[in-house]
Amino acid sequence: MTRRPDEHLSPDDIDAWLAGHPGSAAQAHVDACEACREVAVADRELIEQLRALPVFAPSALFADQVMAAVALPDPFALRSLDTARRRLFATRRSLALAATLAVVVVASMAASVAWSLAHRDTIAAAGTWLTATAGQWLWTALRSAASSATEQPGYGMLRDLAATPARLAALSALVSLTYLGGLLALRKLMTLPSGPVSHANA
Amino acid sequence: MAGSRIELAGATDQEVVALARHGQEAAYRELVRRYERPVFSLVYRMVRDRELAEDLAQETFVKALNAIESYRPEFKFSSWIFKIANNAAIDHLRRRELDTLSLDGSPHAETPEAIEATALQIGDRQETALEEVEARELGGEIETAIARLRPEYRSCILLRHVDGRAYEEIAEILGLPLGTVKTYIHRARNELRLMLGHLKE
């Protein structure tokens, strides 16, 4: 892109001038235009001052604090994985063995899928039988639990407590209040501290 | 051990990262050693509070090192770590709306002890007494002027002219188009020139 000699420097021109490789037209303009020269020289001084700013160091314990919070990968596990990978590709024989094993696994899976597709009725019948048996067992277990609960000494008292609608309402209110109280206590326990806790682990 | 330290010191960032991925603690420490100062300096100049900067820099390293497996070696490690650090600082500034701060200490400091604790401290560079006075005076003016810039301009100018990063890398770090980065840097330089104009006399 060409520039007219009377055209003021663009930010890119100034960057090129600061980097020490302005185009000849841009250099001619800097030499001739006092306003642009002033901006370019001021920028150069500013950049020198910025480059001279010191690098700050964190506290001496910084690296240790970082390392204490970093979860290092288990080198043993990684090494085992690497060893396994290396052993697998070590010889043609080990590779052939691994490939055979992979073929056997894939072939068995494929055979299993094929058999399932060919014997859908058998699978459906087995599923129905399993569902019915499980339902029967569940029903029996429920009935046993219910009859054992009604034989407990506290059952009569509980039935008396819920005998009238008023008593039932009072019992519900008591249970709800206890639950609410528990929630509030839990919330208070789990509230984060409001003040700053910088360097808490220093 | 000393041998491995020398080996690590001469290794590229990518090589050190590869060793860290193999679970070598020394490699993790080497990454911290390489970047603790530039990352801390960037964050410190962004938030202007030493304790907070240390917390944010620590958070940056912990986040980066715990996610070292997700680091993509085709990008520069420096870009990755600076990106995390800058995001941490910008997020904090957005939360606190902490745009302008005094060089003499955090505006949140209420007691003289807190003001002293949060005051900007120059690193451990060796200087003569006169140089130190000059550096503090001139550095102080510039540091204050940088603090008055918008956080986006501040990140750009610090990465470009204090850290010496290329425009392309800054665009990558900040996730901004190259043109926007250039514009921000030129605007930041204009603002700084205006703020520091009185020093020329």
Give the SSE layout:
The complex is a heterodimer of chains A (202) and B (201).
Chain A: H1 11-18, H2 24-32, H3 34-51, H4 62-69, H5 75-88, H6 92-118, H7 120-150, H8 154-161, H9 165-190
Chain B: H1 2-10, H2 13-21, H3 25-47, H4 50-66, H5 77-96, H6 112-118, H7 129-148, H8 151-162, H9 167-174, H10 178-195
Helix pairs in contact in B: 2-3, 3-4, 3-5, 4-5, 5-9, 8-10, 9-10
Short synopsis of the structure:
By secondary structure, chain A is mainly α.
Overall description:
The complex is a heterodimer of chains A (202) and B (201). Chain A has 3 domains: 74 residues, Arc Repressor Mutant, subunit A (Orthogonal Bundle), CATH 1.10.10; 56 residues; 35 residues. Helices cover 74% and strands 0% of the residues of chain A. Chain A is built from 9 helices and no strands. With 201 residues, chain B is an all-alpha fold. Chain B is 71% helix and 0% strand. In chain B, α5 packs across α9 and α9 crosses α10. The longest helix of chain B is centred in the first third of the chain and has 23 residues. Chain B starts with a helix and ends in a 6-residue tail after the last helix.
